[in-house]
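Structural biology now treats backbone shape like a language. To illustrate, our science desk offers a sequence and the tokens encoding its fold:
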Amino acid sequence: MRPYDADANYLYQLYTISLARFDNQEAARYISLRADLDTANILWQNDAGRFLHQHMADYNGALAYFERALKATLSMYGDQSDWVATLYNNIALFYAHQGDKATALDYYNRALEIYVQLYGDDDARTQLVRNNISKLAEY
């Protein structure tokens, strides 16, 4: 057990309590603190990034967590893993919301290439990225 696991569990409990109370500010604070305990923990970085993106519209904060997760993922698994594709998709969402369609498309295509190689054309993850690409026109 790592020395910060107890703190991480406690912060996650506070996060879920904050969510139950519809207190997104506090939830964001707790999920971010948890992610900052272990900057190499891909899941924690992704959780914080997704929450900031989806519930707080803090796109720059979300991008920082996604990029931190991507760096750790590339270091651990190389550039052809499911996690890399997931993070490319999440980073693409950031750029799409910022109106940078070219950069978003680049990241979506990276994610798509990995998902097609890993799971094929008909997989739900592959279709999700294709759907995201089709939505670029809306931004």
Notes: The helical segments are 5-20, 24-37, 42-56, 59-77, 82-97, 101-119, 124-134.
